[in-house]
Model the fold of this input.
Amino acid sequence: AAGVIQSPRHLIKEKRETATLKCYPIPRHDTVYWYQQGPGQDPQFLISFYEKMQSDKGSIPDRFSAQQFSDYHSELNMSSLELGDSALYFCASSRTGTGGLEAFFGQGTRLTVV
Amino acid sequence: AQTVTQSQPEMSVQEAETVTLSCTYDTSESDYYLFWYKQPPSRQMILVIRQEAYKQQNATENRFSVNFQKAAKSFSLKISDSQLGDAAMYFCAYRSAGPPKYGNKLVFGAGTILRVKS
Done:
């Protein structure tokens, strides 16, 4: 079965650089979520999209932006990177109509800012 | 806002024994979903079990079962016949049952590290 695909899996950037993370949800899933997980921490919600419209926003810095495209893939753009942005970034997707059940997670993008 | 609390930072269990991980949550909503996710060292987030709040029957998935106490806002996970592969970080998570266009993100607890001893 198709899963959530995230690319790249690993990314190393220098401070003040820009990074773009991509997420390809499971086909026919209409909702995408982005989470940030620091070492030893729980995932923190950043932003979500439902049918290509932003549906909720969490603790996402102003330096970050995200969008969902017509093909339902989503991108998280991160500018002016800081050392503290080093984390694992998860994308998850879910489908309305399945009872609001589980969100399926991608394998994550590990971002290291040096 | 909803909150999820896992009061056990770490738990240990002997192989083949049973262990229970605790989770409490706070919400003013009457309809919602609860989940347990497992995160092994690979850091992949894997769904273990889910519970719909409107269902009184506790969910069970093979060796994993929950004790859902809606009035007490408690949602514990019991792992029976523990195996070495069960060693991981376990997250309890809450999700509103509202329509997704209003946002129904997963809210996670801080996690419990489970160690399995052979």
Q: What stands out?
A: The interface with chain B takes residues 30-31, 33, 35, 37, 41-43, 45, 48, 50-51, 53, 55-56, 58, 88, 90, 92, 94, 96, 99-105, 107-108 of chain A (CB under 8 Å). Chain A has no helices and eleven strands. The radius of gyration of chain A is 13 Å.
